[in-house]
From TrEMBL:
Pfam families: Rrf2
Gene Ontology cellular component list: cytosol
GO molecular function, one term: DNA-binding transcription factor activity
Gene3D superfamilies, A to Z: Winged helix-like DNA-binding domain superfamily/Winged helix DNA-binding domain (1.10.10.10)
Stated name of the protein: Rrf2 family transcriptional regulator
InterPro entries for the chain: Tscrpt_reg_Rrf2 (IPR000944), WH-like_DNA-bd_sf (IPR036388), WH_DNA-bd_sf (IPR036390)
Length: 146
């Protein structure tokens, strides 16, 4: 399975926001500086995390980004949905219809494959949901990221 590069970035941002070293809210500029990434790239990830209800932000002098949930409540699935979306990965395009006869037989096999892929994806998503981000947080591991 292929992930967007922003999946790793989103995990790091969540870990950063959970770090006691940076209490309170953190601006996108600060996050970009700490992560050594461009502000545009960081803002893209932050927007995805906000849309995914993983983080929120306040504007103004004391504004910045902050976590909406405890790390025990956040899983890799939350980050996955925020960065990758929640649409199913596999969608048959019925390409065989273009060159093979017997479309009904072909379509039945396509649905069989689609069902198998959906089952595999659901199992994968369930596994992601069991991995809570609190497992990644301890003083040494978070400081190593920074």
């Amino acid at each position: 399975m292929k992930f967007k590069e922003s999946f790793e970035g989103a995990i790091c941002i969540v870990l950063l926001l959970a770090n006691d070293r940076y209490p309170g809210k953190i601006s996108s500029n600060e996050i970009s500086t700490i992560m050594h990434s461009s502000n545009a790239y960081t803002k893209k990830i932050l927007a995805n995390l906000v849309r995914g209800n993983v983080i929120a932000s306040d504007t103004g002098k004391n504004g910045g980004y902050y976590l909406l949930k405890d790390m025990d409540q956040l899983s890799l699935l939350d980050i996955y949905h925020a960065t990758e979306g929640s649409d199913k990965s596999y969608h048959p395009k019925h390409m065989a219809d273009n060159f093979l006869e017997g479309a009904n037989d072909i379509r039945a096999k396509e649905y069989e494959v689609a069902h198998f892929m959906e089952d595999a994806e659901n199992e994968y998503l369930q596994i992601l949901d069991t991995y809570k981000l609190s497992r990644l947080v301890n003083e040494k591991s978070v400081e190593a990221l920074l």
